[in-house]
Amino acid sequence: MTSTTPVSSAAKPANSRGRVITASLVGTTIEFYDFYAYATAAVLVFPALFFPTGNETTALLASFATFGAAMLARPVGAVVFGHFGDKFGRKATLVASLLTMGIATFLIGVLPTYQSIGWLAALLLLVLRLAQGFALGGEWSGAALVATENAPAGKRALYGTFPQLGAPIGFIIANTLFLIINFTMPGEGGTASEAFLAWGWRIPFLFSAVMVIIGLWVRLKLVESDAFAKVEKSGAIKKFPLGATVRNHWRPLILGTFYMLATYVLFYLMTSFTLAYGTRPMTAPEGADAGSFVPGLGFAYVDFVLMQIIGVVFFGLCTLLSGPLADAIGRRKLLIGVTSAIIVFGLLFVVFLLPQGDEKFTGALVQAFLVFGFLLMGMTFGPMGALLPELFPTNVRYTGSAISYNVASILGAAVAPSIALWLWSVGKGNPWLVGVYLALAGVLTLIALIIGKETKDVDLDDDAAVAAAARR
């Protein structure tokens, strides 16, 4: 690929700048809000309400298993929504994915618990969690395509960061709502109150209905991008996009999957695992089996979530910063540097995450850990909104980018919380093995980035140029 390759077509965008930014940002914010609401509940209340095994660690593992199960449904959602997105357009597919996620999340909010219907409650929770994963499998790629296919020349990575911003914004909204509810119905000794366990935890899930209505209103105003309209007019739409993607674009499919691997592992370690580790008591509660108990840092839930939210602010800021940087120096060069930093960060877990005797010093170290980890998260997650779509031509772009993104979710996210919890148990409360796990994921991503090629200058409207760049 040469620097003379045109960056974007000169045609007038099908959607206004404000509409593109709003539609790509609002939808993913809602989707990630729904996902984070589940992630928080999976740590805070689901072990007691849906998996009362009598052993705290086993209950948490079961809760994390349902959390990770959604990742298995995401590639299925990627194939289904990608098929319709590449055949019939991005707009209708995005509306369908948003509705699916919203309905599943709302139904979780009215689900009876184990006390009411026994293990059927856990089964229904699993089904709705799979529906969430199915929806998110089609959501991200469509939002990224709306942003990048409508981006001005030279600003594709910047526009690609707007759907990525949905992750930190959704996290802040979901966890802030949980905090407000927790403040209004506090329990004793930092534990959840009876009112919170009975009905308070349902409010964030029911609230998603309001957000879905807003998202639908925005997305129904979208117009198909010029890139898709051009393919549709020329008759180049594939009858079976999945087959064409696997047959003709297997190399970028594999590379894209491993590009996302370290990002996913880091993402779920910084959210789900750290919340579980940070709020676990330092000593076994009275009556608990001291031999099987795995100690944590002993922070109160409210305190630790506030620390996470501070870190997530850096996540959002660095997501935005990563776009202009990736447009200026290239996606690959930026990500090689950031991934190298992620590897080092993983090897430093033992420095930041062990109790130091002094509570304030421990708190300062953990806060620094969260800020640095979420900072790296923003820098690695931001460029993916442009990088993955740039690997595929228009007629399989939805399918290809969605499959790469969501297969990576199985390898990097579906098992990350459970593996981290197991490694934490093996380490008897020392998280150094969890950090090694992150570093190894970073090594695999770094290898993929070294093998891959720069896509900054490829023209998304020139499918021949996209395919040629992917083969080099």
TrEMBL record:
Pfam families reported for this sequence: MFS_1
Compartment(s) where it occurs, according to its Swiss-Prot or TrEMBL record: Cell membrane
Record's keyword annotation contains Membrane: yes
Family under the similarity heading: Belongs to the major facilitator superfamily. Metabolite:H+ Symporter (MHS) family (TC 2.A.1.6) family.
InterPro entries: MFS (IPR011701), MFS_dom (IPR020846), MFS_trans_sf (IPR036259), Sugar_transporter_CS (IPR005829)
Keywords associated with the record: Cell membrane, Membrane, Symport, Transmembrane, Transmembrane helix, Transport
The protein, known as: Putative proline/betaine transporter
Organism: Microbacterium oryzae
Transmembrane residue ranges: 35-53, 59-81, 93-111, 117-136, 157-181, 201-220, 257-278, 298-322, 334-355, 361-382, 403-425, 431-451
Domain Major facilitator superfamily (MFS) profile: 20-456
Domain of life of the organism encoding this protein: Bacteria
Membrane protein topology class: Multi-pass membrane protein
Function of the molecule: May be a proton symporter involved in the uptake of osmolytes such as proline and glycine betaine.
GO cellular component, one term: plasma membrane
Chief localisation class: membrane
GO molecular function: symporter activity
